[in-house]
Amino acid sequence: MYFNRGNFYDFASLGSTMINYVNWMFLEKYTYPFEFSTVEMPYETYNGVNVRLRYVLKVTVTLGYAGSIIEYQDFVVILK
């Protein structure tokens, strides 16, 4: 794994089906509230020379035969 900067590894992941959408709902903006109250985040976000620890929210919208829409959003964790 030394000098393997191009690849990343998932050390932990948590998945959940939030809601099943009907196709016509994609014509408008839709906001779905959520929170990370039960997710353990024991480490702060870190960006170093040889390693980067980040937390990513991944949203997958499955469109059946049309494929899927996948979006990623990084967020920062700062422990008090």
TrEMBL record:
Organism: Salix viminalis (Common osier)
Protein name: Uncharacterized protein
Biological processes per GO annotation: intracellular protein transport
Family the entry assigns: Belongs to the VPS26 family.
Xref: Pfam families: Vps26
Origin superkingdom: Eukaryota
